[in-house]
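Many introductory courses stop at the sequence. We go one step further.
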Amino acid sequence: MLNVLLVFLESAITLILRFDPKLRQLAYPLAERGTVVCIRTYLPHVQFYATFGYRGVLLDDRLPNDKTTPDMTVNAYSFQLINAITTHKSSNVESLQIRGSHEDVHDFKAFLVQLGVGGVIQNLLGKVKGKPAPTPEQKAEKQENYKAKIAEQSARIDELTLHNHKLNTALIELQGKQKSTFIALVVVGIIALVAIIMNFV
């Protein structure tokens, strides 16, 4: 009976891990260390082991062969454990008696809080609803950003207009200089032609 229950729980946790990226992130340090947790419950009395690995969380009624002792031990009444993994409340997780290194205990508690059914439902609702509606403060900030961008673009347009005006002015001046140069060349040419004719007269 216990093995059947453990298989069911293991499949449920695997499914939750697949759809909850935050839970995977919290499980990663435990999996990286290969953390093994011994869980003992009272009323009824049950003992099983949870092994964190890169493939997920493996549940078994025996300690893994490569371990002589678990890294952590959890003692709690059955209803306390059920509350901890179904209510998504840190206060219920804190009610569990967890023994182990400070790092392991901290990471395991964070994992249990996120594992709560409330967290799963919240995550699924977030995916269904998409992004939440912006608050009035966010709307005001967005409008201010738009105004700033519009002002910046207007200033840029004014700058480009002024630059274009300068270019047109320079072009007109250049055209005037070219015309004057052409007239001067014509005059010089006429004078040179007259001078040549005068030499032959």
